[in-house]
Amino acid sequence: MKKLFLQASILASIVCVVFPAQVAAGPAAVLDYNPRAEAWIYQQLNAGKEADLALHFSKPEDRIIRASFVVNLLEFPSEPIRRNGVWIKYATVIGDLTLEYAEINFPVSIEYSTFQNYVSFCGSHFYNLASFEGSTFDFNVNLCETKVDESLNLKGTNFNGCLTLSRAQIGKDLLSGEAHFNNADQIVSLTGIQVGKSIFMGKATFAGQPSFDRARIGGDFTLAEAHFEDEEFTVNFGSIRVGDSIFLGKTSFAGGVDFRNAKIEGHFMADDVIFNHPTSLVTFNYMIVEGQMSLNRASFNGQTTFREVQIGDSFVAEDARFNDTKTTAEFGNMHVKDNLFLSRTIFNGPVDFLVADIGIDFIAPDVQFNETEKGVTFESMKVGRILSLNQAIFNGPVNLIYIHVGQNLNAVGSHFNSSTGKVSFGQIKAGTSIILDKSIFAGPVDTRYVETVNNLEAQGAHFANIEEGLFAENMNIGNLILIGGSTFDGPVDFRLTRVGKNFGADDAKFNSAEGLVDLSNMDVEKYLLLNRAVFSGPITIVNTATRGFYAEDSVWPQGPGMIDIRGLTYEEVIVRDAQTGQGILDLLQQSPYHGQSYRALENYYRAAGYPLAADGVYINYKIRETTDGLVIASWQWWWNVFLGGFILFGRGPEIALIWFALILGLGYLIFRKKETMLAMIETDKRYRPLLYSLDLFLPIINLGFANIWTPNPEKKIIRIYAVIHRYLGLILIPMAILAFFGILR
User: Fold this and answer.
1) pTM over the 0.90 mark
2) Residue 367 and residue 348: Cα distance in Å, rounded?
């Protein structure tokens, strides 16, 4: 090699002697290279000038130089070259250019040139700039373990063979924007590369198999608008470390992509990126991004996973498209320090956010989950502040159980379209409220064991499932349940739910003729509001406790077994049926018999200053007790029949006067004939049958007829009745007096 360099030096000297001012351009004769070109290059470099062959040799065939000439320039530089560097443009280099483990302590720039054979600087050390901008490498290029203290410039280069930069060390930047890696069968390896500042590969194209795994980049990594064209190969960014940000905007990947265990200390910016392959995996599993991760308008056509990704700022994928219908888009165990944005994003396959942890807000208005069988799961997800799914569309089952939300869970105006897929909100804990206003649920809904500090709202919502409806038992709502104006086409179950203030169902419509509306065993601290509500089927409010029960202008079902309000307790009550005008007493009458409920209503009316209403309740209570609460023909039953008929259970003692009149009339009829009577003493007093009947009936009081007259002994029936008549007076009159004074009730 020294001999070659010596020959080149001699040639250059001759040229310099013959042409002291300049080297004239001339043809390369019959040689496969142009020695004049080499001599001119040597002259220019020793003069501290750039050797732009296109300016001196107009024909490309006159710009051919040998690889050995280049090696000699680099390995045995003259003092001017050592001082100023190698600056060559538009050369064609033939032969293998191999200079491995060399020390090159001056700038090297061979730009817009063509290297027709193998090139290797493996293990070499460039102490200054190394630039091959705009050049074409027709064969393999080996830069493994190459060290460049400044920047390595490969902008606009074309690589028709493989390129390896494995374990290379670049002190500043690796510049390869608009580079083209054209060989579909060869690798482009940056495995383990170390770059002190940034990598710029914007608009680069990769026809083959690139790999960036374990790369270490001190600044940014830019691949914006790059194109990875191999459909069968996975682009490997595994375990990459980036000191600042990654930029992948508008980049397209024809095959799979692997970012597993990557660590990005800045942002991951991949807006408008396209992952085209329908069966290849795109994985970000275990990736760490200290800043924001942005995938706005990104398109994912195959399986995509973000399991256990950690993001120090926000995750943004608005208007993104996850198009694979068969595999699950996985976000399980994702940790996002700030916000997650999915506005208008479309998922055509199943989605999994299991145990994801979002530090502030999860914002996904107008998102679409289109898969119909597996749907989407948010199970056990934690959201620091707000989970917003407003105007979202869910075409399959939705699993939200065990979610913890710091403030609100909002799904206002959302559509849950699957008639068979359940929407499960079970055991959610919300720091403020759950708001489902104006949402439509085609399938069953489960909110069992939900806990909120403030409200559960579903005003104007439509629960359309006829068979299963809404399961909402055992909830603990700190402030209000508001379902006013909502429509329920199936059964509804709120039993055992506790509400800190009001349960508001004003203007709600419960349309199922068979599905039960179960409001039993609820604890409503303030008001149970059913004003203008319509109940088409059975309803139970058994053992529910509330301060006020209001159901003005509501429509209640008619018929046996349709209403059950046994054990309902309240301090205030207003009930009026919009169609029949019936009140709370009528609801009790339609309910299965429960004496305590009647007594509670009676006490309420009496305490409120409505004694007549209270008496009405008591009378109906005793009638229901007689008909439904006692064994027929038992002594209690007979006693109730007697009290009800005689003094209206103590609430109508004036009825006794009617009975007295009837008894006196009956006595008059029996004692009317004087010939049936016998005077016990002689008297001139005229016999009066009515006064006799009265005197015989009245205890204590003596009218002077019963002491004179008595039935003829021959009239045994009349004599027996006289005894009965007297005892009726002895028994009934004291009872009537006691009832009149309110003692007998």
Assistant:
1) no
2) 11
